[in-house]
Automatic annotation (TrEMBL):
Domain TRAM residues, every copy: 394-457
Protein's recorded name: tRNA-2-methylthio-N(6)-dimethylallyladenosine synthase
Keywords: 4Fe-4S, Cytoplasm, Iron, Iron-sulfur, Metal-binding, S-adenosyl-L-methionine, Transferase, tRNA processing
Biological function: Catalyzes the methylthiolation of N6-(dimethylallyl)adenosine (i(6)A), leading to the formation of 2-methylthio-N6-(dimethylallyl)adenosine (ms(2)i(6)A) at position 37 in tRNAs that read codons beginning with uridine.
Assembly and binders: Monomer.
Residue stretches making up the MTTase N-terminal domain: 21-139
Residues the entry annotates as binding [4Fe-4S] cluster 2: C175, C179, C182
Enzyme class at the top of the EC tree: transferase
Binding-site list for [4Fe-4S] cluster 1: C30, C66, C100
Pfam families the record matches: Radical_SAM, TRAM, UPF0004
Native source organism of the sequence: Yanshouia hominis
């Protein structure tokens, strides 16, 4: 990072306000987007900003946006619209928009024309340039619009992470897969991996600072290391990180089934810190639809992988992403998805109705199924999954689980919430001082969204 630039931005900001400046940073998207938000906050902190969680109190509002579905974009436009009155009352408020959505030229164009009170717009590839953009604007320059894509990972951007138990750790950026429905490769650019040494160093720092769960992030972690000067792969990275001493857990997301290998499963089975839970998005249970999505696997192969993992780790759990109503999907093909879900018995599903993204190949495919019918299929899917979750949860009653408590619970006064290694939410009565501890919990009852239990020992 350019120290002089950070200092210049801090001086200009200090001169603009008669009080220590506050920033409101809001991230709208996936974990990668949230992690980017933490780095943007890191930069703002270096420039002298404190933080607030409301736009009303802020001197700078930064919306870190998501482009994966239209609904996410609509939400951003709504939120930006709501800033108009605040800016009218306080013209010194700076408004900046960044993230995936801002990498789309048509969005930037719309902001330029219809939201004249927005000061700075930049995409995911230019996060590290925030100080430079602020300087340009604060020195009285024109509104800043920057849409150059990222070419490499910028190291050394500080981060302000949420205090607590869990930390995100990005290991790569971008995506090379071009699933036909997905906008990500167009907005985040090509896949670039961070050096394993850097990742290990950051993991050591996080463990040293007391984080108990580290989630490695990438659009497709299974292809980690492909472009590195010295070849390296994801199982090797996991093995390397697993050697870091301390009491902590490792998770990772997202895995692409086409690149998920038996070697990876063996590493998880042998590791001390890697959770026995794999998020393995299948998207659809129909081979025809999976091919039309350009996903490069077959359902048989996917099921074989799951069977292999269960053979090596009988307690392993799975979760997945499912898209309902991909263009041209028939009722029969949707029923194949339901059948797959019943076979795998995921302990969690992230379900989406297909959202058309201009510029992707699927946006050009005929899409004859009416929206109402897709919603009906979606409802059916949720119902089937809810039944499976209930059965899996009931089966846990009476067992003892190792739970990492991470926050106050929701099911009553004095409850704590945490997760099992398999990523199931557990609530139990306990003192807040137990947050951050791994504790054995006897499961006594299943609720819809979580398990309830009693902590067995907390000394
Ligand atoms: N419509 C609906 N869901 C989508 N996803 C990605 N693109 C779309 C889209 N156009 C879902 C996929 C992916 C998850 C992060 O978001 O299921 O795995
Ligand atoms: Fe999108 Fe597919 Fe890349 Fe995931 S792997 S970000 S779904 S293109």
């Amino acid at each position: 990072m350019d120290k002089l630039q950070l200092e210049r931005a801090a001086a200009l900001t200090a001169a603009r306000y008669d009080h220590p400046p506050l920033a409101f940073v809001h991230s709208f998207g996936c974990q990668q987007n949230v992690s980017d938000g933490e780095h943007l906050k890191g930069l703002l902190a270096e420039m002298g900003f404190g933080f607030t969680d409301s736009a009303e109190n802020a001197d700078l509002v930064l919306f870190n946006t998501c482009a994966v579905r239209e609904s996410a974009e609509d939400r951003v436009f709504g939120n930006v619209g709501a800033l108009k009155n605040i800016k009218r009352e306080r013209p010194e408020l700076m408004i900046a928009l960044c993230g995936c959505m801002m990498q789309r030229p048509e969005v930037a164009e719309r902001i330029k024309k219809s939201f004249p009170y927005v000061d700075i717009v930049f995409g995911t590839g230019a996060m590290h340039r925030l100080p430079e953009f602020l300087i340009r604007r604060l020195e009285g320059g024109k509104r800043v619009f920057w849409d150059q894509p990222a070419k490499n990972v910028i190291e050394g951007i500080p981060a302000v992470r949420e205090e607590g138990v869990k930390a995100w750790l990005p290991i790569m950026q971008g995506c090379n897969n071009f699933c036909t429905y997905c906008i990500v490769p167009y907005v985040r650019g090509r896949e670039v991996s961070r050096a394993p040494e850097r990742i290990e160093q950051e993991a050591r720092e996080l463990v040293g600072r007391g984080y108990r769960e580290i989630t490695l992030l990438g659009q497709n972690v299974n292809s980690y290391g492909r472009g590195l000067a010295k070849p390296y792969n994801f199982p090797e990275l996991l093995r390397r990180l697993d050697r870091v001493e301390g009491e902590y857990r490792l998770r990772f997301m997202t895995s692409h089934p086409k690149d998920c290998t038996r070697e990876l499963i063996d590493v998880i089975a042998q590791s001390r810190h890697v959770c026995r839970h794999i998020h393995l998005p299948v998207q659809s249970g129909s081979d025809r639809v999976v091919q039309a999505m350009n996903r490069h696997y077959h359902i048989d192969g996917y099921l074989e992988l799951i069977a292999y993992a269960r053979e090596k780790m009988p307690d392993v759990t799975f979760s997945s992403d499912i898209i309902v109503g991909f263009p041209g999907e028939t009722r029969e093909e949707f029923l194949e998805t339901l059948a797959l879900i019943k076979k795998v018995r995921y302990n969690a599903l992230f379900t989406f109705i297909y959202s058309r993204r201009a510029g992707t190949p699927a946006a050009e495919m005929p899409d004859p199924v009416p929206a109402g019918e897709k919603s009906e299929w979606f409802r059916e899917l949720l119902e089937v999954q809810q039944g499976i979750c209930c059965e899996l949860n009931e089966a846990m009653v009476g067992s003892v689980q190792r739970v990492l408590f991470d926050s106050p619970g929701k099911s009553g006064e004095g409850f704590l919430a945490g997760r099992t290694e398999g990523n199931v939410i557990v609530e139990a009565p306990g003192d807040r001082s137990l947050i951050g501890r791994f504790l054995p919990v006897k499961i006594t009852r299943a609720m819809n969204w979580a398990m309830v239990g009693t902590i067995l020992e907390s000394r």
